[in-house]
Amino acid sequence: AALLGSSAPGWIKKQALAPLTVSSVNTASDEVALWPLPQKFQTSVDAFRLSSASFQIVHAKESTAGPSCSLLQNAFRRYYSYIFGNGRKHGKNLENVFDADLAELQVQITSADPECDGYPSLKSDESYQLEVNQPTAVLKAASVWGALRGLETFSQLVYEDDYGGQNINKTSISDFPRFAHRGILLDSSRHYLPLKVILANLEAMAMNKFNVFHWHIVDDQSFPFQSRTFPDLSHKGAYHPYTHVYTPADVKMVIEFARMRGIRVLAEFDSPGHTFSWGKGQTGLLTPCFSGSSPSGTFGPVNPILNSTYDFMTRFFKEVSTVFPDAYIHLGGDEVDFSCWKSNPDIQKFMDQQGFGQDYRKLESYYIQRLLDIVSTTNKGYMVWQEVFDNGVKLKGDTVVEVWMNNNVDKELQNVTGSGFTAILSAPWYLDYISYGQDWKKYYTVEPLNFEGTAEQKKLVIGGEACLWGEYVDATNLTPRLWPRASAVGERLWSDENVKDVGSAYDRLVKHRCRMVRRGIPAEPLYIGFCPHEYSGN
Amino acid sequence: AALLGSSAPGWIKKQALAPLTVSSVNTASDEVALWPLPQKFQTSVDAFRLSSASFQIVHAKESTAGPSCSLLQNAFRRYYSYIFGNGRKHGKNLENVFDADLAELQVQITSADPECDGYPSLKSDESYQLEVNQPTAVLKAASVWGALRGLETFSQLVYEDDYGGQNINKTSISDFPRFAHRGILLDSSRHYLPLKVILANLEAMAMNKFNVFHWHIVDDQSFPFQSRTFPDLSHKGAYHPYTHVYTPADVKMVIEFARMRGIRVLAEFDSPGHTFSWGKGQTGLLTPCFSGSSPSGTFGPVNPILNSTYDFMTRFFKEVSTVFPDAYIHLGGDEVDFSCWKSNPDIQKFMDQQGFGQDYRKLESYYIQRLLDIVSTTNKGYMVWQEVFDNGVKLKGDTVVEVWMNNNVDKELQNVTGSGFTAILSAPWYLDYISYGQDWKKYYTVEPLNFEGTAEQKKLVIGGEACLWGEYVDATNLTPRLWPRASAVGERLWSDENVKDVGSAYDRLVKHRCRMVRRGIPAEPLYIGFCPHEYSGN
């Protein structure tokens, strides 16, 4: 029983390429469920067995990558474990290889530079071709980034038969992402997220072909990022200076763990609002609020009128730009509350001098403009929340505007792309909002390009993000709350736009979530039912 | 700083009994947060230290229980671990006992029968008195059930100071539950719940002084209860006959684990509706539905017109009554769909013979009546969902009616108690319904006795239950979804009715949830913030 339809025209659904060769396949292959669905694929009832004793994932002879490519070596081991189970012992090639066995998967990187030691980027080529046939399956990709995606797909094709054996059907896949930016936002300020939780979710992201970890690392409530230049920021601004911080080594580990899975780490240091915790370790950075003619003792957004502010930002972002290798930094710029600025006489004076009148958006823009200029000198691109665009700040051409306000999304996308800027969409995917029932369907049926605009404009929408803000989320509940709800966003951003049938998505997603569970991710159930292997992690 | 207010008249808030003796106490004692709040208590700034090397929990000389009381021995070990941490090594009384040390907690059972080997019941005395003073604290209770509650309270009084030492303030507590039935409903049919999850939640229940585990063990979707008399019920009716069943040994373990914590296991075998899974292993039990004049191949509720049905129920409940030691069995009786009965010509004929006309509620009552008579012969009491009462079934005087429909709750409580039946309330506490934000406040502010009725009627409301139905819940997300939301219900059912200030509840509950986290329960956060020891379980 060939089971997977194709989303692309010209490919035939449920096409049988060859007669059934392994008798137990019929029912077992119904278990195969690819998520997200590849762009083009063809599968068959012709099934091969994988022997845990002899099956190998190897570099193809023609590959430009070899055993020195630790990213792939690491991935080979990881996917071997996913296929055969971590705990399963196996002999050393003691078993014979039978005729019906799939002996190996050859991974062939075709570009001169396989990018083994590089970082994934917005421009990374994640496409791959996968041919599963006897006795050898071949995975081809231009770079390691496509190979990682193909390895995930290969592992999803393998299914267990009734005798506990691993099988795979003859299959042909050509795949590539619809959108280049497929992100998950986690917030480590409202609640500190232990490293273990972050790493587990990077694993889950790879299982869903996400490629950006948007790390909303600091905010009003706490500043867990340990800066070498300004150690007081976390020492005084974190929930706890030792147990609730990310040391430089922690950050490095997150970045490397993500790189190994083809995931960018996009750090966000949001300002001038959302900075209350910054003020604890950096005196004078925030605006003193006034009550009448005297300071009230409370503080508002970053003080935009002092040179010391910009000196601080210059040094701080210089460090940040070296800590985070990604070509982009997210600078925030959302939800600036003007009341404190309004109360402060020095700010008012500055507003007069600059001729801003009473338009505090102009003051905000003034600050952001100077900040962007500072960050530009670090040779980083920047991402910002939509207010920065809305307020008319002058932006570099490669700026990415993140559309998050869930009113007039279409209009906003129209405006941002109409002005020639690239955009990513997160407005419909605020996964911190929970409700009873299957809300994944709501996330799944969003079509990001449903706004009015030219083909050129649509090309400027480079992806989206599922955001799990941290007000109600910490290590206890984050992972089951995020998965498989975010998986719905994952398929929307990877697969063809015509892959949108909720019914067939349900069937695949049920199985995909059980696969995540089996791999140790406590992804919650979609609805009534069971997994052959239930979660046993706690 | 004395920190805990009292809810009872005549007790003075923040009363200092003695001067401060340990300097580090001032801030650290702010960490103490009792949950649920005891009925009467008095505390002081006078603090004592607990040495992990020398502190002991022991049987008082006067106690009617001694080292042969394994329930208490087990509890002493458990609470020692909660206080000093599981992993902490300690010497064998090598340290000196200092003047300011609390040397031991003496537990004194005062009744002739301490009930060490008994099961908790609706009539168990859970009251206790706790006096913490130097050099010995004394916990007095009539039976082990009160001692268990007092041990939990004692452990909650202990707080860690800035040097990692454990301290406790001079305290005097007299406590008892407001309601006798304080339950949690878990549903192991919509999703199978591994034993580990059930046991973890029994632990959490004890931390919140719940005393009934309402085990909605089977339903339409699966029949995981392994019956010795009718093994096909689970073999054919469970999601999987080996991996997704509760063996007799499993059930025994749940019951014993619960008993050790003073928790009753109230098993529910719901009929005549919600029985689809029963039909798989017991041919002829369910009503064949008809399409026109021929059977449609589908099945409805239990077939109430066959003698074989009652023979089966007699044998089945005979087994159930021996497997579950509790004095009550929950027989369900909710949501019976009449359409299948209506379609069946044999049922119609029976209705005519009995003179039921077209009133299928009479047929339902007929079935339930016979079932109740069967169960009565096992000497068990029974609980039923409210429909059974609403439909006018004749009930034994000790029947407990569970009010679950969240419309006209007050009217229903009035009617049930007005008819002289005891009632428990679960309608406002369906915790499977989730929403964004702090819904625990909604659960917390429910007042169960807010209906019009005499004092006699109010006495008939013996408690309530927080219900976590299983449609969207399994091992991956159950525990953080249940806690600390169910804790709100726990305090409502234990503490005085005047304990209802949401603000002070918030402060205590934040700390109580961190305590649960520290004890290994992944209780989710109420809102922004942190725990000194974050969850590290996965």
Automatic annotation (TrEMBL), chains A, B:
Enzyme class: hydrolase
Catalytic reaction annotation: N-acetyl-beta-D-6-sulfogalactosaminyl-(1->4)-alpha-L-iduronyl-(1->3)-N-acetyl-D-6-sulfogalactosamine + H2O = alpha-L-iduronyl-(1->3)-N-acetyl-D-6-sulfogalactosamine + N-acetyl-D-6-sulfogalactosamine; a ganglioside GM2 + H2O = a ganglioside GM3 + N-acetyl-beta-D-galactosamine; a ganglioside GM2 (d18:1(4E)) + H2O = a ganglioside GM3 (d18:1(4E)) + N-acetyl-beta-D-galactosamine; beta-D-GalNAc-(1->4)-alpha-L-IdoA-(1->3)-beta-D-GalNAc-4-sulfate-(1->4)-alpha-L-IdoA-(1->3)-D-GalNAc-4-sulfate + H2O = alpha-L-IdoA-(1->3)-beta-D-GalNAc-4-sulfate-(1->4)-alpha-L-IdoA-(1->3)-D-GalNAc-4-sulfate + N-acetyl-D-galactosamine
Glycoside hydrolase family 20 catalytic domain mapped to chain residues: 179-496
Domain of life assignment: Eukaryota
Localisation: Cytoplasmic vesicle, Secretory vesicle, Cortical granule; Lysosome
Keyword annotations: Cytoplasmic vesicle, Disulfide bond, Glycoprotein, Glycosidase, Hydrolase, Lipid metabolism, Lysosome, Signal
Function comment: Hydrolyzes the non-reducing end N-acetyl-D-hexosamine and/or sulfated N-acetyl-D-hexosamine of glycoconjugates, such as the oligosaccharide moieties from proteins and neutral glycolipids, or from certain mucopolysaccharides. The isozyme B does not hydrolyze each of these substrates, however hydrolyzes efficiently neutral oligosaccharide. Only the isozyme A is responsible for the degradation of GM2 gangliosides in the presence of GM2A. During fertilization is responsible, at least in part, for the zona block to polyspermy.
GO cellular component: cortical granule; lysosome; membrane
Subunit structure: There are 3 forms of beta-hexosaminidase: hexosaminidase A is a heterodimer composed of one subunit alpha and one subunit beta (chain A and B); hexosaminidase B is a homodimer of two beta subunits (two chains A and B); hexosaminidase S is a homodimer of two alpha subunits. The composition of the dimer (isozyme A versus isozyme S) has a significant effect on the substrate specificity of the alpha subunit active site.
CDD domains found in the cross-reference section: GH20_HexA_HexB-like
Principal location listed in the UniProt entry: cytoplasm
A biological-process GO annotation: glycosaminoglycan metabolic process
Family classification: Belongs to the glycosyl hydrolase 20 family.
Organism: Pygocentrus nattereri
Pfam families associated with the record: Glyco_hydro_20 (PF00728), Glycohydro_20b2 (PF14845)
UniProt-recorded name of the protein: Beta-hexosaminidase
UniProt GO MF annotations: beta-N-acetylhexosaminidase activity
Cysteines joined through disulfide linkages: C69-C116, C289-C340, C514-C531
Active site: E335 (proton donor)
Record-annotated Beta-hexosaminidase eukaryotic type N-terminal domain positions: 34-157
EC number: 3.2.1.52
